[in-house]
C-alpha cells in the first residue's frame, strides 16, 4: 500500500519581525478516471494553462503520468497536477488495463514526493456508472487504503453543460447540482456518499 500525504503542513518561515508566519503550500492533486472523461482538460483548467494534451480520440491520449505546476500567488503557494492515462483504454484486455492503472497510480504518487492531497476522480456527467467504474474504485482502495475516498477524493463531473440542458427540459429535473448529487442511487450514490459529497 502507498503512503498518502498528510494534511498540508506549511513550512514555518521567519519574517522581518522575527516572528514566524506560515509559508506557501504546494498542493498536489492527481487526476484519475476513465479514458476521455476530461482528466487532462480539468487539469488544464486547474492550472489555468494548457499543460496537458486534450483529445477527443476514443483511445487514451495521455499514455504516461505527466506533472505540471502553476504558482498561485506569493502567499497561496502553488499547485501541482499529476495527469494520468485513462483507465479502461480500449486497446487493452481487462487484466492488462488493471495492472497498468495500478502502475500509473504508483508512478503518479512517486511524482508527488510531498504526498497527494487529493485524488480528483473525473466522471463525465450522464455516463452510466458501470462495473468498470466500480472496479476502478476497488483498485484505488486496495492500493491506497479503505478510507482513501472518505479522506482524499473529490468527484469532478465534466460536461456540466449537459446537466444544464437536462435541467431546462422539464419540471422533474429542476433541482440544482447538490440536490442532484443527493438523489443519486446505486454505485454512483454510494461513491458520492463515501466521498462525503465532495462533488464539483
Ligand atoms: N463538451 C465538453 N467537452 C469536454 C469537457 N471536458 C472535456 N471535454 C472534451 O472531451 C474530450 C476528452 O478530453 P480529455 O481531457 O483529453 O480527456 P482525458 O480523460 O484526459 O482522456 P485520456 O487522456 O485519453 O484518458 C476532449 O475533446 C475535450 O475537449 C466538458 O466539460 N464539456
Ligand atoms: Mg488525458
TrEMBL record:
Record-linked InterPro entries: G_AIG1, GIMA/IAN/Toc, P-loop_NTPase
Top-rank lineage group of the source organism: Eukaryota
Signal peptide as annotated in the record: none
PROSITE patterns xref list: G_AIG1 (PS51720)
Coiled-coil positions: none
Domain AIG1-type G, first and last residues per copy: 24-200
Entry-linked Gene3D superfamilies: P-loop containing nucleotide triphosphate hydrolases (3.40.50.300)
Alphabetical UniProt keywords: GTP-binding, Nucleotide-binding
A Pfam family this chain is assigned to: AIG1
Family: Belongs to the TRAFAC class TrmE-Era-EngA-EngB-Septin-like GTPase superfamily. AIG1/Toc34/Toc159-like paraseptin GTPase family. IAN subfamily.
PANTHER family associated with the record: GTP-BINDING PROTEIN A, GTPASE, IMAP FAMILY MEMBER-RELATED
Protein name: GTPase IMAP family member 7
Organism, as annotated: Aplysia californica
Gene that this sequence comes from: LOC106013000
Amino acid at each position: 500500500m502507498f503512503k498518502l500525504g498528510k494534511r498540508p503542513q506549511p513550512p514555518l518561515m521567519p519574517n522581518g519581525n522575527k516572528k514566524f508566519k506560515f509559508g506557501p503550500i504546494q498542493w498536489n492533486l492527481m487526476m484519475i478516471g476513465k479514458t476521455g472523461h476530461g482528466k487532462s482538460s480539468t487539469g488544464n483548467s486547474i492550472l489555468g494553462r494548457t499543460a496537458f494534451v486534450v483529445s477527443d480520440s476514443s483511445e487514451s491520449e495521455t499514455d504516461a503520468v505527466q506533472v505540471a505546476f502553476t504558482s498561485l500567488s506569493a502567499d497561496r503557494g502553488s499547485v501541482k497536477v499529476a495527469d494520468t492515462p485513462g483507465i479502461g483504454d480500449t486497446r487493452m484486455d481487462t487484466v492488462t488495463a488493471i495492472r497498468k492503472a495500478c502502475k500509473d497510480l504508483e508512478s503518479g504518487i512517486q511524482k508527488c514526493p510531498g504526498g497527494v492531497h487529493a485524488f480528483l476522480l473525473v466522471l463525465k456527467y450522464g455516463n452510466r456508472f458501470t462495473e468498470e467504474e466500480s472496479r476502478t474504485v476497488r483498485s484505488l482502495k486496495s492500493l491506497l487504503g479503505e478510507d482513501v475516498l472518505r479522506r482524499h477524493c473529490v468527484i469532478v463531473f465534466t460536461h456540466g453543460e449537459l446537466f444544464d440542458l437536462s435541467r431546462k427540459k422539464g419540471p422533474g429535473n429542476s433541482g440544482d447540482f447538490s440536490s442532484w448529487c443527493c438523489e443519486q442511487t446505486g454505485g454512483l450514490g454510494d461513491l458520492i456518499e463515501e466521498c462525503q459529497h465532495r462533488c464539483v
